[in-house]
């Protein structure tokens, strides 16, 4: 996962290519194989997009339920550096520093001791995405859209794939961790391409305010399009500004 320059033109193209992905967001339904999905086995009772379910399932397995020893060691290295609530410590420190004249140098210095564990976390997460999607795959738009709407039910976990919490502050944490990895030169281009999708997913979930226990009806397609058109065009400075409003990105 070598660092590459950000290519926002690809993200702009994603907003257009999302036509093929968002048209099927008209409601949760038994997952059906889409073109290119033949490598994923059917899961009876699954609701929502099959590929989107898979990526969030694998991400949970790799980072929460069945993490490798390397990932576990990386997590506890961050705990040793920043305490048990290391994620909130990093988030709150970023919020203090992001408006300072010294930003991003001050924040980069703050996270520099965490470069090694963050590199492990980056590799583990990107390996999951790469197992299910191509880098900068336009289908990721649908993955974040259905995730944010609470439309993905997975019988393997007997639960929804959704960001928990009201409001779902995990999106802000992920944004700041992405920024830390970018400033440290860890897969910079990959995370620069992922950051607008994360903000888009957060905006979708804040708009939908889904039930976090049961499958939800979709938002109007026009609403999802409006959010995609706004957030998938944001540059890093604009995304930083959006996440300064705790715990929400500023809505269009």
In short:
The chain has 252 residues and is an all-alpha fold. Helices cover 57% and strands 2% of the residues. A two-stranded antiparallel ribbon has the order 1-2.
> Uncertain segments of ≥5 residues (pLDDT<50)?
1-35
Tell me, briefly, the overall form.
globular
Order of SSEs? HHHHHHHHEEHHHH
As a percent range, the share of strand residues is: under 5%
Largest sheet: 2 strands, antiparallel
Which class of secondary structure composition applies to the elements?
mainly alpha
Distance between the termini: 33 Å
Name the strands of the widest sheet in spatial order: 1-2
**How many distinct helices?**
12
């Amino acid at each position: 996962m070598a660092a590459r320059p950000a290519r926002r033109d690809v993200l702009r193209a994603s907003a257009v290519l999302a036509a093929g992905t968002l048209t099927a967001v008209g409601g949760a339904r038994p997952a059906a194989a889409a073109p290119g999905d033949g490598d994923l086995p059917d899961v009876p009772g699954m609701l929502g997009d099959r590929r989107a379910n898979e990526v969030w399932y694998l991400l949970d397995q790799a980072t929460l339920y069945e993490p490798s020893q390397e990932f576990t060691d990386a997590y506890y290295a961050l705990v040793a550096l920043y305490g048990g609530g290391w994620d909130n410590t990093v988030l709150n420190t970023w919020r203090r520093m992001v408006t300072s004249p010294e930003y991003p140098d001050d924040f980069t210095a703050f996270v520099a001791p965490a470069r090694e564990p963050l590199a492990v976390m980056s590799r583990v997460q990107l390996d999951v995405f790469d197992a299910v999607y191509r880098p900068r795959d336009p289908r990721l738009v649908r993955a974040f859209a259905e995730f944010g709407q609470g439309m993905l039910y997975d019988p393997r976990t007997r639960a929804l794939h959704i960001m928990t919490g009201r409001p779902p502050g995990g999106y802000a944490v992920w944004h700041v961790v992405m920024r830390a990895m970018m400033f440290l030169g860890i897969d910079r281009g990959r995370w620069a391409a992922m950051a607008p999708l994360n903000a888009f997913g957060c905006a979708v979930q804040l708009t939908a305010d889904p039930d976090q226990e049961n499958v939800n009806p979709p938002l109007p397609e026009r609403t999802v399009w409006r959010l995609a058109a706004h957030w998938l065009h944001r540059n890093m400075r604009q995304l930083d500004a959006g996440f300064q409003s705790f715990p929400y990105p500023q809505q269009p």
